[in-house]
Write a structure and sequence with these properties.
Layout: H1 4-18, E1 22-28, H2 44-48, E2 57-59, E3 62-66, E4 81-86, E5 91-97, E6 108-116, E7 120-128, E8 134-142, E9 148-150, H3 167-176, H4 181-186, H5 196-205, H6 219-238, E10 280-284, E11 287-291
Antiparallel strand pairs: 1-6, 2-3, 3-4, 4-8, 5-7, 6-7, 8-9, 10-11
Helix pairs in contact: 1-6, 3-6, 5-6
The chain binds a DNA duplex (16 and 16 nucleotides) through residues 1-3, 32, 35, 61, 86-90, 107, 128-133, 177-179, 183, 186, 188, 195-196, 244-245, 247, 285-288.
Length: 299
Amino acid sequence: MPELPEVEVVRLGLAPAVTGAVVTAVDVFDERAITRHDHARGSFADRLTGRRMRAPQRRGKFIWIPLDPDPVVEAATPAGDAVLAHLGMTGQLLLREAWARPEDEPHVRVRVELRHPQAGELAVFFRDQRTFGSLALDELVTTDAGDAVPTQVRHLARDPLDPLFDDRGFLAALAVKRSAVKRVLLDQRAISGVGNIYADEALWAARIHPEQPANRLSRAKARMLLGEIRLVLGKALIEGGTSFDAQYVNVNGQAGYFAHSLNAYGREGKPCPRCGTPIVRVSFMNRSSHFCPKEQRLR
DNA sequence: CTTTCGCCCTGAGTGC
DNA sequence: TGCACTCAGGGCGAAA
């Protein structure tokens, strides 16, 4: 459920607490929470303990926190390394007092204890009900544009809120692909950060049927779609993200408000806010698509 | 190469 | 009340 806006809210919340902090202890309570980690180079806890964190970064739905160079294995990782996090469906990164007990709340998979030069001792809890999320220590690699990203993020396209997002490249990808336009929106190699909720919302705003073949969109329509993607992601970010239940929350455990602003997603049978036609839900790619059957026609 | 499919997982909700 | 079943879906790797 956490898509770009939710993940960005988490990154912004994490930043003041972790930037400059030193990891004093790492407890992994459930190994499934670190399935992204490559154990061949050492355990997650061993590699993270003692390291100093820099400012958190994000691309698409991935967050990472670059670390100051490790004095022990400096040569092995020329661009450095980082703690990488993907929240999956139900992952949460929560700021806690250092004395807070992980066993007092459900699904705490990992606890990272920090000492911050100003804020002092604190802890970050990684909670994850469905364990689709994961943490890892990952190597950074330098991209063509000169920025350093974890190896697991390398294959992702930039996200539409990234100033270096390749508008022309994305439009070209749409123009070439015969698959459903929604499939392209969910393909993180074409555009990252968009998930089921914001794909449905952007398609509704642009009046495009989710199963319209991407290459059948006019250039103008495709450009409008990209604009609506940026618009809906930006609005959701300002509202603190979309929360349906207690699953998505910021680092302080608070829900976002954007669920009230959804026009299509999760509104099956309810009137389209523009024309009143009941929103329909159809099965698509093992998930659901919600759209207005009157305004979003398959051509 | 593209596209599809199955798997990972838990708790809320539904139907009988 | 209880039990079986369905659903939510991001990422990834295997299969077609």
